[in-house]
Write a structure and sequence with these properties.
By secondary structure, this protein is α/β, with parallel strands linked by helices. The protein folds into two domains: 180 residues, 3-Layer(bba) Sandwich (FAD/NAD(P)-binding domain); 120 residues, 3-Layer(bba) Sandwich (FAD/NAD(P)-binding domain). The chain is built from seven helices and 17 strands. Helix 1 links the parallel strand 1 and strand 2. The radius of gyration is 21 Å and the shape is elongated.
């Protein structure tokens, strides 16, 4: 490939959404290149076990699922390359993408860079990610049936997910750095779980370390009102927000919502014609692998229609 080559579509990111899209585009002989700056498979590849993705009765390891998607996309001709996309611009209908300082060109672009979980930055958090430390209750809550959990966070997501997790767990300690900041409606709902002993809220509690014995998370140390304290647990769920991977879109003209997620129409096209978005980076996404894959397929079909229109313009 030379810098002057104009590809049919360049996909930014190589997580489940982009890989699914690439399967669709390449099967229709649409020239497709994916750029990934980290791990192929995205967050899915770093998840220990995926138990809610259709088609795998016994669940599947996240890395294995990512590998299957990668091989399937490559079988049909997708080109997956490692590179850091730092800018994108539209020049008279041609999309110019800066990858590792070099400009490449495409007729269309799919933004599928996902979102990263905000972390609390304590020892043990990275080490036990996916193996006792989690960021998705829907994905991983069922692994903790009849277990005790620590949930960290005090916003809407933390409260919602803590209440959701009670359908599996025996008890949840909710650690809140300052005060509960969830909506009044959620706080009202939370009170019922507090009253029935399913959730205990610990205000002014700052986690300091996630500890494991023999490779299994079993303790969270924290400072509560400035005093050291410990919470025995079988797992930890962290809900302190998401950070969309959209920094490279500054100056691109692509419209973002107040959270920094990419806005699209029902065809998953952004306000810049020929630039599409799918998966966890998209405003309104449900942050599930299954839906990200579905959005990838939808985006691919929309890209095909866009390219067909260009041929007949």
């Amino acid at each position: 490939m030379t810098e002057q080559t104009v590809r049919d579509v360049i996909m930014i990111g190589a997580g489940p959404s982009a890989l699914a899209a690439a399967i669709y585009t390449t099967r229709e002989d649409i020239d497709t290149v994916l750029y990934e700056k980290a791990a192929i498979g995205g967050l899915a590849a770093t998840t220990d076990m995926v138990d809610n993705y259709p088609g795998f009765a016994d669940g599947i390891e996240g890395l294995t699922l990512a590998g299957h998607l990668e091989k399937q996309a490559e079988r049909f001709g997708a080109h997956i390359e490692f590179g850091d996309v730092t800018a994108i611009r539209d020049e008279k209908g041609v999309k110019v993408i800066t990858v590792d300082g070099v400009d490449v060109q495409a007729k269309t672009v799919l933004i599928a860079t996902g979102s990263g979980y905000n972390k609390i930055g304590v020892p043990g958090e990275d080490e036990f990610y996916g193996r006792g430390v989690h960021y998705c209750a829907t994905c991983d809550g069922a692994f903790y049936r009849d277990k005790k959990l620590v949930v960290i966070g005090g916003g809407n997501s933390a409260v919602q997910e803590a209440m959701f997790l009670t359908r599996f767990t025996t008890h949840i300690d909710l650690l809140v750095r300052s005060t509960i900041k969830a909506s009044e409606v959620l706080q009202h709902d939370l009170q019922e779980f507090i009253d029935n002993g399913k959730i205990t809220v610990h205000l002014a509690t700052v986690p300091t370390e996630i500890v494991a014995t023999d490779g299994k998370v079993n303790l969270v140390t924290a400072a509560k009102d400035g005093k050291p304290t410990e919470f025995h647990t079988d797992g930890v769920f962290v809900f302190v927000g998401l950070k969309p991977n959209t920094q490279f879109l500054a100056g691109s003209g692509v419209e973002l919502d107040e959270q920094g997620l990419v806005k699209t129409d029902n065809r998953l096209e952004t306000n810049v014609h020929g630039i599409f978005a799918s998966g966890d980076v998209r405003s309104g996404a449900t942050m599930q692998i299954a839906s990200a894959v579905g959005e990838g397929a939808t985006a691919a079909l929309s890209i095909r229609e866009y390219l067909d229109d260009l041929k007949h313009a």
